[in-house]
Design a protein that fits this description.
single chain, about 350 residues, alpha+beta, T-fold, about 30% helix
């Protein structure tokens, strides 16, 4: 089972109330939903509903097995219009907005490149794509803005567009789950989709406590309290990757070059309570990761993110001043590079 990007750390203690949890394997990762402060029957019913929705989304948004997304991608290649589900239309619009905000660094339209590198498989192996094919796909410049939605149909102005929403779906699912739990009367919960985490309410008299995973070892590099409505998202080079000739290649592709991004081990962002906090937590970490140690802070600003942390390829921690104030580092001598 793949490592989750963030390690949830629930502080133990005596309490008259319990945390009820369920775990499933969805979106290609471990999903855990924890509910506090309600009856077991109410918690189980609410979590079951969320898990069913996650399963439905996984089937609908799958990038390489038959799904609504693969039907759309086939229509894009053929220059045809395809009927689109209202929820998928909303997801595409939201992803397009964030892609524009990132200046194309977050780009779910480059599924062709992701597939070329072998990452559109349940199990993947080291591959060395033809540089000519990489350059051809980069030159075709597929963008989310190439997708046109008119009423209940969608088409693409660029046949090279191939949607892969793997860098957005988990964050979107956080927002959906939070809304479902609130409607079910759940006030206190923690939703963890492979390290993309959102908190509702609190864990009794204390906040939900989480840790940022060490990208090159066990445990966490830092911990923090997550407040009501806040979400954290991490992009790392340690979950979906392969090593070829001693070099690590991860699934996060730089749209400018067509090659996996280099120079970064992990990026974590904290998004405060607000509309689409989950979706932003998932999407925003990608342009920061791709921008690397030199450009990460500017990329974070463009995404409206003040709380961000980057671990570079040498294991050096870089963190914004705002986020550093929220963190408790595991190693007292962590000595992170703190920037405004």
């Amino acid at each position: 089972m793949r490592l989750i990007l963030l390690l949830m750390l629930l502080v133990s203690g005596c309490t008259s109330r319990q945390v009820y949890q369920q775990q499933r394997y969805v979106f290609g990762t471990l999903v855990e939903v924890s509910v506090y402060g309600t009856s077991k029957s109410k918690a189980d019913e609410a979590i079951d509903g969320v898990m069913r929705k996650f399963g439905q989304m996984h089937e609908t948004l799958h990038a390489w097995k038959p799904s609504e997304i693969t039907k759309l991608n086939r229509a894009f290649v053929e220059g045809k219009k395809e009927k689109v589900d209202p929820e998928i239309a909303k997801i595409i619009r939201d992803a397009t907005r964030l892609s524009d905000q990132s200046k194309g660094f977050f780009n779910p339209a480059i599924g062709g490149l992701i597939g070329l590198w072998g990452f559109q498989n349940d199990e993947f192996k080291p591959v060395r794509p033809d540089p000519g094919k990489i350059q051809a796909l980069v030159s075709e410049n597929p963008q989310m803005d190439d997708i046109v939605i008119e009423g209940n149909v969608a088409y693409s102005k660029n046949p090279a567009v191939k949607l892969d929403l793997g860098g957005f779906a988990k964050g979107y699912a956080l927002d959906v789950a939070a809304e479902m739990l609130r409607k079910a009367g759940v006030e206190d919960a923690l939703i963890n989709i492979g390290g993309n985490i959102m908190a509702l309410g609190s864990h009794g008299s204390r906040s939900w406590h989480v840790g940022i995973k060490n990208p090159r070892g066990a445990g966490a590099i830092a911990e923090l309290d997550l407040h009501d409505g806040e979400a954290i998202g991490t992009s790392g080079d340690y979950q979906r990757y392969f090593i070829l000739d001693g070099k690590r290649y991860c699934h996060i592709i730089d749209p400018r070059t067509g090659y996996p991004a280099q120079g970064v081990e992990a990026v974590t962002v904290l998004i405060h309570k607000g509309e689409h906090a989950g979706a932003l937590s998932d999407a925003a970490s990608k342009p920061i990761f791709i921008s690397g140690p030199e450009g990460w802070r500017q990329a974070a600003k463009e995404m409206g993110v003040e709380d961000a942390l980057l671990v570079d390829a040498n294991g050096r921690i870089h963190v914004t001043k705002a986020f550093e104030k929220r963190l408790s580092f595991e190693k007292k001598d962590a000595n992170p590079d703190v920037v405004d």
